[in-house]
Amino acid sequence: MPLFAKIMSFFCVLAAGAFLCLASLDWLARQPWAYEVWRAEFMVHGLPLDDRDTGWTVDWSQEQDLSDDTANEMFEKAGKKAVKTQKKEIENVRKNIEEGIDGLQDDTAKRQALRGYLLPQAHTFEERQALALRTDNDPEEIKKKMEMGDTDAQRTRLRALLPAMALTVKERDDMNNLVKDKEVPADKLLAALNDLASTASLKKLLGSMFDDAMPKDGEQEQVARQTRRAQVAHLLYNLSRDLAAHQRVMLVVGLRAYVNEAESQAAALREIAQRTRLAMIHERTVFEQDFARQRQRLEGLAQDRERKKIELQEKEDLKMRNDALVKGRREEKDFWVKNVDNAKKETEASLNKQAELENQLFAVLKELGDIKDRNELLEGQIRALTARGGRR
Hints:
The chain is an all-alpha fold.
C-alpha cells in the first residue's frame, strides 16, 4: 500500500473516531433537553386520556413513554399518588368522593356534601339554580309536612318548584306536563320530586357527570378526544377544593386545558353574576312596587285600626254604662226577690193561720149547727107537750 493511502486511512479512522465522539457528546447533550421538552409537552397537554390516547404524538400511546419513576417524580408535589392517565385520575377522585359521602351518617350532611360537588359543575345560571333547588328541597322533609296536614301548601309549592329543577329540555317538558293539572295528586308530585332531588338521585346525578367525562371505548377521533379533555378538565377543576388539588388537576389535564377551563369558569361566573345582578334589580323593582302597595294597604289598615279603636272605646263605655244599669237592676231584682220571698213566707204564714182560724170557725159553726138541731128538737118536743096539754 502506498504511503499516501496509509496516511489517508489513518486520517479516516481518526475522523470516524472524532465523529463518533462528537455524536456521543451531541446525544448526551440532546437527551436531557429532549426529556425536558417532553416533560414540558406533558405540562402543556396533560396526561393521556387512557392507554390508547396518542395525544400530540401520532403513532403510539403516550402512556408507553411515561415510566413509573417519571410519573412518581411528576406527582411528588401533587398528592403523591401517581397516575398515568386522566381516566385513572377520574376513577380515583370518584372513589374518594363516593367513600366520603357514604361515610357521612346524617342525610343532611350528605346533601350538603353533594351540593358542594354539584353546584360548581353548572355551566349556566339556570343549571346552577336547578341544582341549588334540588339540593335545598329534601323530599323527606316535604313528605313530613304533608303528613302533618300541610298538603295543599306543599302541593302548590311543588307545582312551582318542579319545572325549575329540570336540567334538560325533556325533564322540563315532563315537569310542565305534570303540573298543568291543578288537581294533580300530591303523591305524584312527591314521586317526581323524589326522582329529581332525593339523596340517591343526587348521588346518581354526580355519578352521571363522572360517566360523561370518562373516556369511551373506541373513541379515537381527535376532535372527540379534545372535547373529552375539556369535559375532564371541567369536572376535575370544579371538584378541586384547595390549592394542592388545583395543582394536581393542572398536572393531570395540562396547562392548556386548565387555563381554558379557568377562563370558561370565569366567563360563566361573570354571566351568573350579571344574571344575579339583573335578578336582584328585578326583585328590587318588584319589592318597591309591592312595598308601595303594602304601605298603602298598611296605612288603610292603620286608619281602620284607629277607627275600630274609637268604636271599641265607645262600645266599652256603653258596656260600662250598661253594666252599671245591669248592676242596679240586679240589685233591685235581688231586693224584690228578697221582699217577694219574705212576702211569700208571710203569706204562707198568714194562710196557715187563716186555715187554722177557718178550721176553728168550722168547728164553731159545726157546734152551733148541733146546738141548733137540739134546739129545734126541743122546740118540737115543747110544741108537742103544749098541744097535748090543751086537749086535756
